[in-house]
Amino acid sequence: xxxxxxxxxxxxxxxxxxxxxxxxxxxxxxxxxxxxxxxxxxxxxxxxxxxxxxxxxxxxxxxxxxxxxxxxxxxxxxxxxxxxxxxxxxxxxxxxxxxxxxxxxxxxxxxxxxxxxxxxxxxxxxxxxxxxxxxxxxxxxxxxxxxxxxxxxxxxxxxxxxxxxxxxxxxxxxxxxxxxxxxxxxxxxxxxxxxxxxxxxxxxxxxxxxxxxxxxxxxxxxxxxxxxxxxxxxxxxxxxxxxxxxxxxx
Length: 250
What we know:
CATH topology: TIM Barrel
Number of strands: 9
Structural class: alpha/beta
Number of helices: 8
Number of domains: 1
Shape: globular
Strand order of the largest sheet: 3-1-2-4-5-6-7-8-9
CATH superfamily: Aldolase class I
Strand content: 15-25%
């Protein structure tokens, strides 16, 4: 049993990343090196805080009146939370024992020995698919796409057979990079191939995390990238809607 984890920061009452109000834990450490990452400061565990389940319980206890409403609960993000899978499993057990829902915001990098145990205590999986084609995914993240897609298949299978976790596919929309018709149709084909059809959250790219790269003395890889216009977002959404996939804006 992993009784503590390396946490970068905690958002007390978040309104995204799952239903209702949520306490969001940003865990430290990431195996992906995404060129558009808004949390560049979470890649390393350096400077993070080791927090025990006992301390987390005390924090959540104070928030229960807010978090228990409308299906609220906790979300783990990062960084990549699956790199601390043992801790996340215990954290989710704790949360569910407090009648809170659990959401996992992940790139799918979970060791097989932890996967089923993690899915068993997860109510919602928010699976980030940065790109739909292997070459582009490798270029954007430095990692292979195969593991991401395999994780999604396992999550969808569990959802179809056991009723949880609900699966949502996430895509940060990068104009001119991962919003082409080919990219989005490939994403749609993947979604349609799963045991149960997930919704797709299209998140408009933003530049709010650029300053974090600068503060770390790092060069931002996409200096000329701008957020998508409403027209560009709508065009991407329509491509998926035509495949009978429910799309919403993140």
